[in-house]
# Entry
Amino acid sequence: MMIKIDSNNIITAWCTVGGIEGGLSVGNIPEEVKTAPIGYYKYVGGKFAINTSYAEPTEEPTLSVGEKIIEIQSKIDLLNQSVDLLVLDTL
# Structure
């Protein structure tokens, strides 16, 4: 069993079969760690502990199809402007 932690010892991934690149081998992953949201637990000094800084992820507002199209088109327009500037830079 392996876990992966970030620089603050917060568990960012775990597995019971196989491995995780850059992961730490642990003897057992408690069931409460497995069922908790990622980031809810830390691994400090060889022990699992609740991350007291954990905050529930905020839900992003759901966009309508029209709003998504506008958002995507805005990104495309920005990319096109960047490409145009790059082309002008090479002339």
Remarks:
- Residues 65-90 form the longest helix (26 residues).
- The mean pLDDT is 90.
- The helical segments are 31-35, 65-90.
- Residues 61-91 form one domain.
